[in-house]
TrEMBL record:
Bilayer topology term: Multi-pass membrane protein
Species: Gordonibacter massiliensis (ex Traore et al. 2017)
PROSITE patterns from the UniProt entry: MFS (PS50850)
Any one Gene Ontology molecular-function term assigned to this protein's record: transmembrane transporter activity
The protein's name in its UniProt record: MFS transporter
Parts of the chain that traverse the membrane: 12-37, 57-76, 149-170, 176-196, 230-253, 265-285, 292-311, 317-344, 356-373, 379-401
Keywords: Cell membrane, Membrane, Transmembrane, Transmembrane helix
Length: 407
């Protein structure tokens, strides 16, 4: 392909994505590939670390350090993203995931894996929040929740497809091939992000004058605004702490409860629930009171974690994975939509902080579960503790968040 033909091909791709719906579709495909890389790698690395000589605590620690470095990197990146836009951050993040993953294909020692995993923190710091920021900037307010739900659907589908299709590569060809295949997915995700149009203000269809401006929580008084913002940060933190337990030790749970099955079956059920939860929650965020939509997803997440930790057989554990996935992915979609539609001009910066709250939950959940197991407690105790955290989040949300559709 000549240089001129390449430019024309890119223009055609941009033309497809010129509208908000087309842009959201491209974001969904790119996120499917890049999140698929991260989800599959995150769920496989703890077992690999233990094979290389690390204990349960080290297995959870490497993922937690990866997230911690990403949170620290996100602070200086905020200004870069504001100046260059979400598209630039998505491309940077996709490459930040892909290049270290490609190098992992030739690593055989624990320290090498840990160093490259920490290098991938640039991907987590740049890509995840930029997806929400790009959609918040390019999607009209009446459909923001649905666009977020569609992208969450795509990222959840990546968890369904990734582990179950990539884990067999480990047994048949080794971890080198496994990491190489994930790197190919990352390259494709970065290429699609390059086809996105530059970020621009969303043009909404004609709406009544009463809907042109969403009420800002600050209008209702400073104490209420602070309380709402605190809940919009605490919700992702507590949901992510439980999700971290599943991502770090779900493979071990599969090997003990689902013996004889593909280790990825548990993650298939987790993401199947998330597929339904993301779409329903995205629609509910646009249609109903955010308080009701978020509360239902938190309740489903907590019940799912409880079943996974205490159920005696495979079927209840898989049912728990369905509920956990629906609650987690649906809850994150509704929490992001609630923030994006209520915080006005400050939504972009707040969404990055909300992603950091989610990442901190991933750190705490993985470390706490690893410490509990290192101390001799069973894996069920970690899942039950995560369920109790979800119950606490549900109680706080129900008591403190205002019951208004436009809150």
């Amino acid at each position: 392909m000549t240089k001129g033909e390449g430019k024309r091909a890119r223009k055609r791709c941009v033309g497809i994505a010129c509208g908000p719906n087309g842009a959201a579709a491209l974001v969904a495909v790119s996120a499917f590939l890049v999140f698929g890389l991260n989800n599959t790698e995150t769920s496989a690395l703890p077992a690999y670390v233990m094979e290389l000589g690390g204990g349960p605590f080290v297995a959870g620690l490497q993922n937690s350090l990866f997230v911690l470095v990403a949170v620290l990197l996100r602070i200086p990146l905020e200004r870069v993203v504001e100046r260059r836009g979400g598209r630039f951050a998505m491309i940077l993040g996709a490459l930040g995931y892909t290049l270290p993953c490609l190098l992992m294909a030739s690593c055989t020692e624990l320290w090498q894996i840990v160093v490259l995993r920490l290098a991938q923190a640039l991907g987590l710091a740049a890509f995840q929040p930029s997806v929400s920021q790009y959609l918040a900037a390019s999607s009209p307010a009446p459909v923001l929740g649905r666009h977020l739900g569609i992208v969450r659907f795509a990222t959840t589908a990546s968890l369904m497809v990734g582990p179950v299709s990539a884990f067999p590569l480990i047994g048949e060809h080794g971890y080198g091939t496994f990491f190489a295949v994930l790197a190919v997915a990352g390259v494709c995700g970065a290429a699609i992000a390059c086809a996105l149009p530059a970020r621009r203000p969303a043009v909404a269809p004609e709406t009544p004058a009463s809907e042109e401006r969403r009420p800002n929580p600050d209008d209702a008084g400073l104490p209420m605004a602070r309380r709402q913002k605190a809940l919009l940060l605490a919700g992702p933190f507590l949901l992510a702490s439980g999700y971290s337990v599943v991502m770090n030790f779900g493979q071990l749970l599969s090997r003990s409860v689902l013996a004889g099955c593909n280790d990825g079956v548990l993650f298939v059920c987790l993401s199947a629930g998330g597929l339904a939860g993301s779409l329903v929650a995205g629609w509910a965020a646009d249609r109903f009171d955010p308080k009701r939509a978020v509360a239902c997803t938190i309740a489903a997440n907590g019940l799912g974690l409880l079943l996974m930790g205490t159920a005696p057989g495979p079927l209840p554990v898989l049912a728990g994975a369905l509920l956990c996935g629906a609650g987690y992915f649906g809850g994150i979609a509704t929490l992001i939509a609630a923030a994006g539609t209520s915080l006005g001009g400050g939504a972009s910066t707040f969404l990055a902080r909300q992603q950091s709250g989610l990442d901190l939950g991933m750190i705490v959940g993985g470390l706490a579960a690893g410490l509990m197991m290192q101390a001799g407690l069973p894996l069920a105790a970690a899942f039950s503790t995560a369920s109790a955290a979800a119950a606490a989040a549900l109680l706080a949300w129900g008591m403190m968040y205002p019951r208004r559709k436009d809150a």
